[in-house]
Amino acid sequence: MSSKKIELDHKDMVHDSAIDYYGKRLATASSDSTVKITNIGGASAPSQLVATLTGHYGPVWRVGWAHPKYGSILASCGYDGRVIVWKEAATGQWSQLYVFDNHKASVNSIAWAPYELGLCLACGSSDGTISVISMRLDAGGYDAATIERAHPVGVTAVSWAPAAPLGSMVGSGQLVHKLVSGGFDCVVKVWEFVNGGWKLESAMVSDMHKECVRDVSWAPVLGLAKSTIASASQDGKVVIWTSGKAGGKWEGKLMRDFEAPVWRVSWSLTGNILSVAAGEGDITLWKESSDGQWESLWTKASEEPPQEQAAIEEAMQ
């Protein structure tokens, strides 16, 4: 597996990065209060900074690209409690489409819904709430729903369920409106939109996570008969949660103890490979074997010096 090093123009620590739908551009979020967009280029071509987005007043924690069906749209969130939705009108010409500042504390995570559900963004905050923002590009403005006290001591991560129901394929006509969240309370929760509001479907309280849940990721389920969620914790553990039917009980299984804080987990588009970022920047890829054991496919050890995480954790809380 080949890799390419991309030089970034940030003046402080980089907290998140996201590649667009076509794999051509990289958006990055930093403690320097900016979001930068870089053309990645080919394997041998140099990368090129094409835009610097300013509008946050403090560290920017996360960035995420919307589906290109809705145009060139990017969202960011940060310590200042703001969520900014950016739109590119012409190549390299970005402006603020929406600014959502209803949260009373740091917004730690954002996630775009599957495109079938519309231009919809979930936001998790240290104020304990989850906001779900539905945007109206044709008429302008947005609608916002709030899950109060989702994790009373603070929300750290959110991820959407696939839009297709279990065992079905794209275009079945049915759509799933569900979210998974993690928090400083060490709990993973599943939420469902029913009868015009968000309701708690399941709370996965267990002794497998003894410290805060740093990330959650719902795997694609196209044509599969089970739902799968990965959760990552400050305690070093990654847990795989599975449910065999809609609304059914979730069973948790320890995937691995990395013996260092696990910051991010992310599934491949096919849902069979899991990426894990842990410790001082080590990235590994894992795949489940036929006997249910997880095998390492690839490891990338950080070439950068260790970074102090205590200040970041304190800021998010």
Automatic annotation (TrEMBL):
InterPro entries on file: Sec13/Seh1_fam, WD40/YVTN_repeat-like_dom_sf, WD40_repeat_dom_sf, WD40_rpt
Pfam families: WD40 (PF00400)
Keywords in alphabetical order: Protein transport, Repeat, Transport, WD repeat
First and last residues of every WD repeat: 53-87
Keyword Repeat applies: yes
GO biological process, one term: COPII-coated vesicle budding
A single GO molecular function term of this UniProt record: structural molecule activity
CC terms in the record's Gene Ontology section: COPII vesicle coat; nuclear pore outer ring
Family according to the record: Belongs to the WD repeat SEC13 family.
Role: Required for protein transport from the endoplasmic reticulum to the Golgi apparatus.
Protein name: Predicted protein
Gene: LOC123428006
